[in-house]
Amino acid sequence: MICGIDEVGRGCIFGPILSAAVVFKKKPNFIKELDDSKKLKKEKREYLSSLILENSYYAFAEISNITIEKINIHNASLLAMQTAYENLKLNCSLVFVDGKFVPKITAKTVKAIIKGDSIIDEIKAASIIAKVKRDKLMDEYDKIYPLYLLKKNKGYPTKEHKNAIKKHGVLSLHRKSFKLI
Protein backbone atom coordinates (compact mmCIF):
# COMPACT_ATOMS: atom_id res chain seq x y z
CA MET A 1 0.00 0.00 0.00
CA ILE A 2 1.19 3.48 -0.91
CA CYS A 3 0.18 6.45 1.22
CA GLY A 4 0.44 10.13 0.34
CA ILE A 5 0.40 12.89 2.95
CA ASP A 6 0.17 16.66 2.63
CA GLU A 7 -0.69 19.60 4.85
CA VAL A 8 -2.47 22.89 4.29
CA GLY A 9 -2.58 26.13 6.22
CA ARG A 10 1.12 26.44 6.89
CA GLY A 11 1.26 30.05 5.69
CA CYS A 12 -1.94 31.10 7.44
CA ILE A 13 -2.14 33.46 10.40
CA PHE A 14 -5.45 32.05 11.63
CA GLY A 15 -6.55 28.60 12.69
CA PRO A 16 -4.99 25.15 12.57
CA ILE A 17 -2.66 23.45 10.19
CA LEU A 18 -4.49 20.49 8.68
CA SER A 19 -3.02 17.35 7.19
CA ALA A 20 -4.49 14.45 5.22
CA ALA A 21 -3.21 10.95 4.50
CA VAL A 22 -4.60 9.04 1.50
CA VAL A 23 -4.33 5.44 0.29
CA PHE A 24 -6.28 4.56 -2.86
CA LYS A 25 -8.39 1.40 -2.58
CA LYS A 26 -7.50 0.74 -6.24
CA LYS A 27 -6.15 2.95 -9.00
CA PRO A 28 -8.95 5.46 -9.55
CA ASN A 29 -10.26 6.29 -13.02
CA PHE A 30 -9.95 10.02 -12.24
CA ILE A 31 -6.19 9.86 -11.53
CA LYS A 32 -5.28 12.07 -14.52
CA GLU A 33 -7.48 14.87 -13.14
CA LEU A 34 -5.52 15.12 -9.88
CA ASP A 35 -3.16 18.02 -9.32
CA ASP A 36 -1.80 20.20 -6.55
CA SER A 37 -4.87 21.66 -4.80
CA LYS A 38 -3.51 25.20 -5.24
CA LYS A 39 -3.66 24.77 -9.03
CA LEU A 40 -7.32 23.67 -9.12
CA LYS A 41 -10.43 25.85 -9.12
CA LYS A 42 -12.66 25.51 -6.05
CA GLU A 43 -15.41 23.58 -7.91
CA LYS A 44 -12.92 21.08 -9.35
CA ARG A 45 -11.28 20.60 -5.93
CA GLU A 46 -14.63 19.89 -4.30
CA TYR A 47 -15.65 17.48 -7.07
CA LEU A 48 -12.34 15.60 -6.86
CA SER A 49 -12.45 15.62 -3.06
CA SER A 50 -15.76 13.74 -3.07
CA LEU A 51 -14.33 11.18 -5.53
CA ILE A 52 -11.18 10.76 -3.44
CA LEU A 53 -13.17 10.24 -0.24
CA GLU A 54 -15.30 7.57 -1.97
CA ASN A 55 -12.33 5.72 -3.46
CA SER A 56 -9.67 5.78 -0.76
CA TYR A 57 -8.80 5.16 2.84
CA TYR A 58 -8.05 8.52 4.39
CA ALA A 59 -7.50 10.32 7.67
CA PHE A 60 -7.04 13.89 8.81
CA ALA A 61 -5.17 15.64 11.60
CA GLU A 62 -5.43 19.21 12.85
CA ILE A 63 -2.77 20.96 14.88
CA SER A 64 -4.15 24.00 16.69
CA ASN A 65 -2.73 27.50 16.55
CA ILE A 66 -1.88 27.10 20.27
CA THR A 67 0.30 24.06 19.53
CA ILE A 68 1.81 25.85 16.52
CA GLU A 69 2.83 28.67 18.91
CA LYS A 70 4.42 26.16 21.31
CA ILE A 71 6.37 23.96 18.88
CA ASN A 72 6.70 26.27 15.78
CA ILE A 73 5.15 25.87 12.35
CA HIS A 74 7.79 23.46 11.02
CA ASN A 75 7.35 20.98 13.86
CA ALA A 76 3.56 21.44 13.75
CA SER A 77 3.58 20.52 10.04
CA LEU A 78 5.55 17.36 10.73
CA LEU A 79 3.30 16.49 13.68
CA ALA A 80 0.18 17.00 11.54
CA MET A 81 1.52 14.61 8.88
CA GLN A 82 2.59 12.05 11.48
CA THR A 83 -0.79 12.21 13.22
CA ALA A 84 -2.75 11.91 9.96
CA TYR A 85 -0.79 8.75 9.15
CA GLU A 86 -1.38 7.34 12.64
CA ASN A 87 -5.11 8.14 12.33
CA LEU A 88 -5.20 6.15 9.08
CA LYS A 89 -4.52 2.97 11.09
CA LEU A 90 -2.99 1.15 8.11
CA ASN A 91 0.47 -0.32 7.68
CA CYS A 92 1.77 1.07 4.42
CA SER A 93 4.90 -0.22 2.72
CA LEU A 94 5.63 3.19 1.22
CA VAL A 95 4.69 6.66 2.46
CA PHE A 96 5.28 9.82 0.44
CA VAL A 97 5.09 13.19 2.18
CA ASP A 98 5.11 16.58 0.49
CA GLY A 99 8.17 18.69 1.27
CA LYS A 100 11.78 18.05 2.16
CA PHE A 101 11.47 16.80 5.74
CA VAL A 102 10.34 13.36 6.90
CA PRO A 103 7.98 13.20 9.89
CA LYS A 104 8.24 10.42 12.50
CA ILE A 105 6.24 7.76 10.68
CA THR A 106 6.61 4.04 11.35
CA ALA A 107 6.40 2.66 7.83
CA LYS A 108 8.91 0.51 5.97
CA THR A 109 9.87 3.39 3.67
CA VAL A 110 9.06 7.08 4.09
CA LYS A 111 10.15 9.57 1.45
CA ALA A 112 9.85 13.35 1.41
CA ILE A 113 9.22 14.66 -2.09
CA ILE A 114 9.73 18.35 -2.83
CA LYS A 115 6.72 19.55 -4.88
CA GLY A 116 5.21 16.11 -4.25
CA ASP A 117 1.74 17.64 -4.47
CA SER A 118 2.42 18.12 -8.20
CA ILE A 119 4.17 14.77 -8.75
CA ILE A 120 2.77 11.91 -6.62
CA ASP A 121 -0.90 11.01 -7.13
CA GLU A 122 -1.49 10.06 -3.48
CA ILE A 123 0.01 13.37 -2.30
CA LYS A 124 -2.10 15.26 -4.86
CA ALA A 125 -5.19 13.55 -3.43
CA ALA A 126 -4.15 14.35 0.15
CA SER A 127 -3.55 17.96 -0.88
CA ILE A 128 -7.04 18.21 -2.35
CA ILE A 129 -9.01 16.70 0.54
CA ALA A 130 -7.00 18.64 3.13
CA LYS A 131 -7.58 21.94 1.31
CA VAL A 132 -11.32 21.31 0.91
CA LYS A 133 -11.67 20.36 4.59
CA ARG A 134 -9.71 23.37 5.86
CA ASP A 135 -11.54 25.76 3.52
CA LYS A 136 -14.88 24.50 4.89
CA LEU A 137 -13.57 25.03 8.42
CA MET A 138 -12.67 28.63 7.53
CA ASP A 139 -16.16 29.11 6.05
CA GLU A 140 -17.60 28.02 9.42
CA TYR A 141 -15.30 30.39 11.32
CA ASP A 142 -16.40 33.17 8.98
CA LYS A 143 -19.95 32.79 10.34
CA ILE A 144 -18.60 33.34 13.87
CA TYR A 145 -16.08 36.07 12.97
CA PRO A 146 -17.50 37.76 9.83
CA LEU A 147 -15.43 40.93 10.27
CA TYR A 148 -12.23 38.99 9.43
CA LEU A 149 -13.43 37.81 5.98
CA LEU A 150 -12.25 34.23 6.59
CA LYS A 151 -14.52 32.81 3.89
CA LYS A 152 -12.55 34.92 1.42
CA ASN A 153 -8.99 34.82 2.82
CA LYS A 154 -9.11 31.30 4.36
CA GLY A 155 -6.90 32.51 7.21
CA TYR A 156 -4.08 33.77 5.00
CA PRO A 157 -2.44 37.16 5.69
CA THR A 158 -4.21 39.18 3.02
CA LYS A 159 -4.36 42.96 3.20
CA GLU A 160 -8.05 42.79 4.20
CA HIS A 161 -7.34 40.25 6.93
CA LYS A 162 -4.51 42.35 8.36
CA ASN A 163 -6.70 45.46 8.23
CA ALA A 164 -9.44 43.58 10.13
CA ILE A 165 -6.89 42.68 12.82
CA LYS A 166 -5.84 46.35 13.08
CA LYS A 167 -9.46 47.46 13.35
CA HIS A 168 -11.03 44.68 15.46
CA GLY A 169 -8.09 43.09 17.27
CA VAL A 170 -6.43 39.69 17.47
CA LEU A 171 -8.65 36.64 18.03
CA SER A 172 -7.78 33.58 20.12
CA LEU A 173 -7.39 31.55 16.90
CA HIS A 174 -4.80 33.89 15.40
CA ARG A 175 -1.19 32.69 15.40
CA LYS A 176 0.35 35.33 17.59
CA SER A 177 3.98 34.45 16.83
CA PHE A 178 3.31 35.19 13.16
CA LYS A 179 3.52 38.72 11.79
CA LEU A 180 -0.15 39.65 12.05
CA ILE A 181 -0.07 43.28 10.89
Automatic annotation (TrEMBL):
Tell me where in this chain the RNase H type-2 domain is found.
1-181
Q: Where does a divalent metal cation bind?
A: 6-7, 98
Provide the Gene Ontology terms for cellular component.
cytoplasm; ribonuclease H2 complex
EC class:
hydrolase
Which keywords appear in this protein's UniProt record, sorted alphabetically? Cytoplasm, Endonuclease, Hydrolase, Manganese, Metal-binding, Nuclease
Reaction equation(s) it catalyzes: Endonucleolytic cleavage to 5'-phosphomonoester
Give the cofactor note text: Manganese or magnesium. Binds 1 divalent metal ion per monomer in the absence of substrate. May bind a second metal ion after substrate binding.
Localized where?
Answer: Cytoplasm
The record's HAMAP family line, in alphabetical order, gives: RNase_HII_B
PANTHER family named in the record: RIBONUCLEASE, RIBONUCLEASE H2 SUBUNIT A
In Swiss-Prot or TrEMBL terms, this protein is called Ribonuclease HII
- Source organism (scientific name): Borreliella spielmanii A14S
